[in-house]
Design a protein that fits this description.
The structure is a single chain. The chain is of the alpha/beta class. It has 6 helices and 6 strands. The chain has one domain (about 10-180): Rossmann fold (3-Layer(aba) Sandwich). Helices cover about 30% and strands about 15% of the residues. Strands 3-2-1-4-5-6 form a 6-stranded parallel sheet, sandwiched between helices. The longest helix has 14 residues, at about 35-50. The N and C termini lie close together (about 10 Å).
Length: about 180
């Protein structure tokens, strides 16, 4: 993977790595190692050389599911009997460092119910370089929200994944409806 992270946009950019967390990796990959983690860690290492922020928002409904919807959310409700998504712990081996921003997100969009947007604006961030799992969930929801909030969006395709390969490919073919620059 050779994503070009040079350019004038870097001075106003942040890297947002979404849902690289224990529960997601266990559901999608089980005990098998995933090359996705290695690709993302390579991206994170290259990004750190820019000196710009790195953010890790993960899906978390709270220890007692206090942030769970009242049974009406078709995307979230099926997970409740599983006991998953209570903490949003990052997957082992993810290149998180002190000073990185970590968020617990109660919905698919990393912006819903979090201070992420305010934190980015406080830092002068107007461009988001994003990667995440899953493309049809967190990536789609967060891209739609961020586009409506006037962020300049770039998606690192090699660091995004979805178990529905056809939907994943279709979203990237369309540039998420013209909302993103695909890297």
């Amino acid at each position: 993977m050779s994503v070009d992270i040079r350019g004038e946009y870097i001075a106003r950019a942040a890297l947002v790595v979404m849902h690289y967390q224990v529960d997601v990796f266990e559901i999608l990959f089980g005990e098998k190692p995933s090359p996705l983690l290695d690709r993302c860690n390579a991206l994170i290492r290259r990004w750190r050389a820019t000196g710009r922020p790195v953010l890790f928002p993960n899906f978390s409904l709270g220890a007692d599911y206090e942030h769970a919807p009242p049974g009406t959310n078709r995307q979230i409700t099926p997970y409740l009997p599983s006991g998953r998504f209570r903490t949003g712990l990052p997957v082992a081996g993810l290149a998180i460092e002190r000073g990185d921003l970590v968020y617990a997100c109660p919905r698919a969009s990393v912006f819903h119910g979090t201070s992420l947007d305010a934190d980015l604006r406080t830092r002068g961030v107007s461009t988001l370089v994003m990667a995440g799992i899953s493309t049809t969930g967190v990536v789609l929801s967060s891209v739609a929200w961020a586009c409506d909030a006037d962020y300049d969006l770039r998606l690192v395709q090699d660091c995004c994944f979805d178990p529905d390969q056809e939907a994943h490919d279709a979203l990237f073919r369309s540039g998420f409806g013209g909302r993103v620059l695909v890297l």
